[in-house]
Design a protein that fits this description.
The chain is α/β, with parallel strands linked by helices. The protein is built from 21 helices and 14 strands. The longest helix is centred in the middle third of the chain and has 25 residues. It is globular.
Length: about 600
């Protein structure tokens, strides 16, 4: 039963009957009643004054006097031009019972809503391990995919591995020069960390050589592009694209080291993909499409043989697509990747979860695809997000000042273990069970702290603040769920949990009614989060929900309630609350502990 839809239809009928006039449904605005006023929903009456030809207060009262005749309307009050409507206790109780029968409550199952959605996230470079910035990207992408599935869409999660380019050659060249044949096994390091060390080493040696050239009287700008080690890396890239056997063999070896390392990190984060694309494969298609566009005179070649897209007529700059030496750029690869993906899936929408510094890049990508004649260009959408920083400031991969994802996860686990021990949360569970719970708390703290922030905003991540059993944190919500499971186990032990429901009418206390009303909002919250691509909407909803349940639990007895009907209702309300918390956290990629 869609209460808002029914209310809207009832109000539409009332307006027609009492004012003998039709009105556009869009003019009927029903909102959640503000907390300081009595009521569940508020109707804004100002749009109806033209047909009522009366004051806002009189119009609101006339509509209210008719609405009160509807079976599920209990009361109303008027504050100026706002009609506050109170829904009956019986309606909310019946609604809770109906919701309990629906194992996928909140999710959309309308076949008409289903679309093919492809979502790209992660997109790491194979020259360094995943870091804190990648964590925000992965958690956002994975959660948005789950939320879109909950909204009825068929979602394909894809990863684009940036496994070629000058940055990859920098790590390769440094290893070739100074690695002395070291491998991850010999170094006792994850492969992605080992390769990342050589990326940092390249940057250090590069800066030394730049300084030497400057000391010889060469300008800084010239030194930065003519430094020998950079020229060697560029030569290596040209040889790689030409298929040099030794270079390709080294590239495959080092990339495989990195892939093995990435797999461990993804597993620790609980992230997976339906398909992985590799830039080393898609860039070839991109070059082919660019050359085809050149032949058709859509693109142009400059005197140095570089190929460009002239976008100045559209308010953008010229965009290089092939360098003068024939090597490709990121845009070339993205053109090829988009083409291959549309061929694979014929998607209705393709989402790129990429930081906001790439806004311009994706605007240009769509425009170039449009110029090349692909009518699906407008199905591409950039899901932008802000940067994540630590209390110490920004991170820089080349300087080795990033926060490694694995190290951060380990730190979270250590902190969760220490805090749980200090608070005595796990005193009554086995060592193995405690380890599972600690992992869930640690990852729950990390994921929730990041996902509760609006994706469009930059954020400051403080690992220690995220693990707190009080406040707006993952562990607080997880602990609420564990408390609920404990109560339900006790109820089961007393044989008072079943499919029972109150036999007699009961009057709901305010916090009981508020909880049911929040349950009612859950489907709309999922829909809004899917429309906005914002897990933060789910995160902040489930926090408010958990906070309200704890207030209810503190104020009202459940198992000790003497009125049998009230006790049964509160148990069933607790059960549904637990299901919503579990469902909402699952949409954030967060697991729930049965006990804490």
């Amino acid at each position: 039963m869609d209460l808002i839809l029914n209310l809207t239809e009832s109000i539409e009928t009332i307006l027609k009957n009492i004012y003998n006039s039709d009105i556009d449904k869009k003019a009927i605005s029903i909102q959640k009643t503000r907390i300081e006023f009595e009521g569940d929903f508020t109707l804004v009456v100002f749009p109806f004054l033209k047909i009522s030809r009366k004051s806002p207060e009189i119009t609101a009262n006339e509509i209210g006097n008719e609405l009160i005749k509807v079976s599920y309307i209990e009361n109303f009050n008027v504050i100026k031009g706002f009609l506050n409507i109170t829904i009956s206790h019986k309606y909310w109780i019946d609604f809770l019972y109906q919701s309990l029968q629906n194992n996928t409550f909140g999710f959309t199952d309308d076949p008409g809503e289903k679309k093919q959605v492809m979502i790209e996230f992660s997109s790491p470079n194979t020259n360094k391990p995943l870091h804190l910035g990648h964590i925000r990207n992965n958690l956002l992408g994975f959660s948005i995919a789950k939320i879109l599935e909950a909204n009825g869409h068929h979602v394909t999660k894809v990863n684009l591995v940036n496994d070629r380019g000058i940055h990859i050659c920098k790590s390769m060249l440094a290893w070739k020069k100074w690695g002395k044949g070291v491998t991850p096994d010999k170094a006792a390091k994850k492969g992605d960390k080992l390769v990342g060390d050589y990326y940092v080493l390249f940057d250090k040696e590069y800066k030394k050589e730049v300084e030497l050239l400057i000391n010889k009287g060469i300008s800084e700008d010239k030194a930065k592009v003519e430094v020998p080690i950079l020229l060697e890396a560029q030569d290596m890239l040209r040889k790689w694209e030409a298929g040099d056997e030794d270079i390709v063999k080294l590239w495959k070896t080092m990339n495989n080291w990195v892939y093995e390392g990435f797999d461990v990190t993804y597993k620790n984060l609980g992230i997976d993909f339906d398909k992985i694309y590799y830039e080393s494969e898609t860039y070839k298609k991109g070059k082919s499409l660019v050359l085809d566009g050149l032949e058709k005179k859509i693109l142009k070649k400059k005197d140095d043989n570089s190929v460009w897209a002239d976008l100045t007529a559209h308010g953008y700059d010229e965009k290089i697509l092939l360098r003068s030496d024939g090597t490709s750029v990121y845009m070339t690869q993205d053109i090829g990747t988009a083409f291959e993906r549309y061929k694979d899936k014929k998607f209705d929408k393709h989402l790129y979860v990429v930081g906001n510094e790439q806004n311009y890049h994706f605007q240009v990508l769509k425009l170039i695809l449009k110029k090349l004649g692909y009518d699906w260009y407008d199905k591409l959408e950039h899901v932008s997000y802000g940067m994540v920083e630590l209390p110490g400031g920004k991170m820089k991969s080349r300087e080795g000042t990033v926060v490694d994802a694995d190290d951060l996860i380990d730190h979270m686990k250590t902190t969760a273990k220490e805090m749980s021990k200090e608070l005595g949360k796990l005193d009554e569970v086995s060592e193995n069970e405690a380890e599972v719970i600690i992992n869930r708390i640690a990852l729950g703290a990390l994921k929730y702290f990041i996902l509760k922030v609006d994706p469009n905003k930059n954020m400051l991540f403080n690992p220690d603040e995220s693990i707190d059993f009080n406040g707006n944190t993952g562990p607080f919500i997880q602990y609420t769920y564990a408390r609920i499971k404990s109560l339900l186990r006790k109820a089961s032990d007393k044989n008072i949990v079943s499919s029972a429901f109150p036999k007699n009418d009961i009057k709901l206390a305010k916090k009981e009614k508020d909880l049911v009303r929040l349950i009612y909002e859950y489907p709309a919250i999922i829909k809004e989060a899917g429309t906005e691509y914002s897990p933060a909407i789910i995160a902040n909803y489930v926090y408010e929900f958990a906070k309200l349940y704890n207030q209810f639990y503190h104020d009202y007895p459940v198992l000790k309630e003497e009125d049998q009907d009230k006790m049964i209702f509160r148990i069933r309300l607790t059960e549904m609350t637990g299901r919503i918390i579990e469902s909402a956290l699952e949409l954030l990629g967060i697991g729930v502990p049965e006990r804490m």
